[in-house]
Write a structure and sequence with these properties.
Blueprint (H helix, E strand, L loop, with lengths): L1 H6 L3 H11 L9 H9 L5 H17 L6 H10 L5 H13 L50 H14 L13
């Protein structure tokens, strides 16, 4: 079914395969989550909606299936062009313990009126506390000092006096 959900020619077949995968438990078969996350990127909106729906069902059955990858894929699905996909992704994230708050432009969020609709008191799911380390700078400082590159170019001119250096006329 995983193979069919990813490679079937017709969207109806892919959607049915995702629906059939939902009959299994993600606790015993964690590979079905990968197939469902993959289906969130399908070209057909009905397949994407079915995948979000099945992920939500898996989260309701077992909260231990809420992986970072699934949450990330569902968060991206909140911006889908199809309303059904967005609705199913929102329900799935809420089943995982996240509160989806619609943004408001009239300033009501500063008073706290927008965060009252969730069962967990409007609190978002806990974020990771450990920050990623900053990337190390490149070891070659020539990337930052173009004057060193000009200096190397002038060193090439000195080597050009060699009798065979301009044999084929490739140097300028």
């Amino acid at each position: 079914m995983i193979y069919t959900s990813q490679t079937a020619c017709y969207a109806d077949d892919r959607e049915k395969a995702i629906d059939d995968l939902g009959d299994y438990s993600c606790r015993c078969n964690p590979e079905i989550l990968t197939a469902m996350i993959y289906a969130l990127n399908d070209a057909d909106e009905e397949v994407r909606a079915e995948a979000a729906d099945e992920l939500g069902d898996q989260f309701r059955d077992s909260c231990c299936c809420c992986s970072k990858e699934a949450v990330s894929a569902l968060t991206c699905a909140l911006a889908d062009c199809d309303k059904d996909v967005r609705d199913e992704a929102e329900e799935a994230l809420e089943a995982c313990g996240y509160c989806i708050v619609d943004g408001c432009c009239d300033g009501c969020c500063s008073t706290g009126c927008c965060s009252s609709g969730c069962s967990n008191g409007g609190a978002a799911a806990p974020a990771e506390t450990e920050a990623a380390p900053a990337p190390a700078p490149p070891e070659d400082p020539k990337a930052y000092f173009p004057s060193r590159l000009r200096q190397q170019h002038s060193n090439r001119k000195i080597r050009r006096n060699n009798k065979l250096a301009n044999l084929f006329g490739l140097l300028d």
